[in-house]
Write a structure and sequence with these properties.
Radius of gyration: 22 Å
Strand content: 15-25%
Distance between the termini: 48 Å
Oligomer: single chain
Shape: elongated
Structural class: alpha/beta
Number of domains: 2
Length: 331
């Protein structure tokens, strides 16, 4: 809520306040500064204040420092933003009462592979990556999931990113017979590869992850390009007033405003009509109606629904890939 990360705090606070305007809760804000020291301090402050439930900690450093203290005090946490798979082991080992209102890191690959299994089943596809940790891990995760269904690429490669020209790579893809290409890479390289393929008359349908969401300066994605991303949350909740200050905060893309509002809605439903105390188990296995739509948590406290969606570029703009036969191809 301060300095560089103030924009996160503004969105979280505005969403939370909007959810309690007609509720029965008292909202108290704490600033963790997205640092480990701040996480520990806020946990101590919450315990001293006797809070029933905590919401927030979008930065994993602050979360890691705060959670052991909150767990010892039996204060459940609705966690915003942290996608790391590593928290699962810590949560299990420490018996942490954490509800993760964010996708797991693996959800991105799951969404992409589910889509590709359905609509690329008969395609000659390649899998390439840019050698970065994100690109390599995403490409490997997608390839592993496809191979579970005996779908294997006709070509794999690691390409050199950020080049102005990728015609040599496009030629190798053509020689291998690939018509569809999954990329573990970013929007800049996807734009270059798409443009180079078009310039020499080669039809390639490209697909990738959330790194394809980028400003126009990174280049325009070719029509037919497929990618997974978190959606922009419902339009009615895009701009909310903060009654405490009179400010208006606008959520940008997959910001924290609407997830924060949903987290408070879950908290209010979880304690409504209950006796004294808030019990973590009461939040598991039930469905909550929220600004994000229906939300439920499994026995581990993770979402039962994958928040990532598949989009296709049409006329230069992303649209949901809802059609059963939508392969992403513009042919």
């Amino acid at each position: 809520m301060s300095e560089y990360f103030a924009v996160l705090g503004e969105e979280i606070e505005a969403g939370a306040r909007a959810a309690i305007e007609n509720g029965f809760a008292t909202l108290t804000m704490f600033d963790d500064a997205c640092e480990a020291e701040g996480g520990a301090k806020t946990a101590d402050a919450m315990i001293a204040a006797g809070v029933d439930i905590a919401i927030g900690y979008p930065c994993i450093e602050a979360f890691d420092a705060a959670m052991p203290k909150l767990a010892e005090a039996n204060i459940p946490l609705i966690l915003l933003g942290v996608q790391s798979e590593a928290i699962a082991a810590d949560r299990s080992k420490g018996n942490w009462p954490v509800l993760r209102l964010a996708p797991k890191a693996s959800d991105e690959a799951d969404a992409l592979a589910t889509y590709m299994k359905r609509v690329w089943r008969d395609a000659h596809f390649a899998i390439i990556d840019d050698g970065t940790l994100y690109g390599r891990q995403l490409a490997e995760a997608v390839r592993f999931r496809l191979e579970e269904d005996n779908l294997r690429p006709v070509f794999t490669d690691t390409y050199r990113p950020q080049l102005d020209n990728q015609i040599a790579l496009v030629r190798r893809l053509q020689k291998a017979g690939a018509t569809h290409v999954f990329m573990g890479g970013d929007a800049y390289d996807a734009a270059v590869i798409g443009a180079d393929a078009a310039s020499i008359g080669i039809d390639l349908t490209l697909a990738g992850g959330s790194a394809f969401v980028a400003p126009p300066a990174d280049g325009g994605l070719a029509d037919g390009t497929v990618f997974a991303a978190l959606p922009e949350w419902p339009a009615a909740d895009r701009i909310l007033s903060d009654p405490a200050s009179g400010r208006k905060v606008e959520a940008i893309g997959d910001g924290y405003l609407v997830p924060s509002r949903a987290a408070v809605e879950i908290a209010l439903q979880g304690v409504a009509g209950g006796g004294s105390g808030v019990f973590f188990g009461d939040f598991l296995g039930r469905t909550f109606e929220t600004s994000l739509g229906p939300i439920s948590f499994d026995g581990n406290g993770d979402l039962t629904r994958n928040l990532f969606e598949i989009f296709v570029i049409r006329n230069g703009e992303p649209v949901p890939a809802t059609a059963t036969g939508d392969t992403g191809s513009i042919q």
